[in-house]
Each structure stands twice: as structure tokens, then as C-alpha cells.
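Could you join me in thinking about how sequence relates to backbone shape in a protein? We need material for that, and I hope you will provide a protein of your own picking. Once you have written the record down, we can walk along the chain together:

…
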Amino acid sequence: MFGKKPLIGEDLHDWITENFDWVESERPFWWQMAELIRPTKEYFHAPGGHNHETALLVFEDIKRLLGTTQPIELEPLPDLPDELLHEYGRMSDTAGQYWDDAETPLITYNPKLMRRPVVFINTLAHELIHARLSPVVDDLPGGEPAHELATDLHAIIAGFGVIQLEAAEQAGWAGYMSQASRAVALAEFMHRKAIAPEDAFAYLSKRPASWLRKALAAY
């Protein structure tokens, strides 16, 4: 009667698990190669730097981790004022965008994001998931209306949950998924992959770690 209130509603929770189930059954290769990606040299080989050459190396690392072989171009956006990066709901416009209206898809990014590597990695991963999901948007649970939300979720299903949860905290915005729903999705990923909690907590600051701890308590 007075039990703990779930972090998210039942319908949203069901949608999250349905997407996990869809990937496992319909795209088993995606699921088999997914691992818990952490912001370390084990996964990202680019040296320090804020230039486009460094961005391309990070981009190639993420493509490798996702198993993406499709040719996709990467270009920096024009320099934008810092304050735009903190406007809630504007992150997808100012941080990066995916364009698929030419022969070769294009991802654009704001170079200022490279000051915060976790946020930058998360931005590129989100846009590359757009490319992954583009052919199957209508087949996913929720279909086209849930596409942007699904892009966040499928980045977590692909192993970028720790990075996404921490990036949202660092950037000071929520994005398409809430931190609570991200934590639930990351907990689902860790449960299905039998990943030890400490493998994630070591790379999360206080508030994201608290969200994840609450989500893991359900298992």
C-alpha cells in the first residue's frame, strides 16, 4: 500500500522493454555486440584536442563501437554562443544534427562541445543512432511519433547509457528522455547483460549515480 513509487510510469517502462525485446529479436547483431561503453582510452583512442581532426577520430571510434560501416560525413557547425548550449530543448539543434537528404548522410556538430568530451561523445552517438534507426523507424515500438525518444533509448541499448546519463547531467538539460527513464533503461541493459553495478558507478557523478541506484533496486 505504501511501497516505493516507480521511477517512471508503466506505459513508458513497457515501451522501453519492448524496444529491448525488438532489438534482441529483430537485430540480434546489434544486441550481441553491445557492451557498456565507458569514457576511457579502452574505447576512445583520439588524443586530446578540439580540432576537426580529433572530432573525426572520435566519430570513427563511435562508428566502430556501433558496427556502423555506412559512409557518413561529419562537419562542424558555425561557431555559436555558449548560452545556446544550455537552452533546454535546443540541444538537438545546437549540439548536432543528422541530415539524410543527400547521397551520403551528414552529421553536424558544435565544436564547443569538444570542451566536454562526454557530452561530445553522447552527441555524436545520438546522431549515429539516427542513421542506424532510419530504415526501421516505423517498425520500432511506438513508430515515427516516438522516433526522437527512441533514438535516445537505442543509444542506451547500444551501450552508451553511462555516457548519456552523465552527459545530460554535465550539459544541464534533459533531452528527449528524462534522467529517470534513462536510468531505468540503463538498469535494464545492465540486468540483461549481467553487468556489475560498479562498472557503471565509477563513471557517474552523484545525481546520475543516484538515479541508477534507484533503478537497479527494482532487480
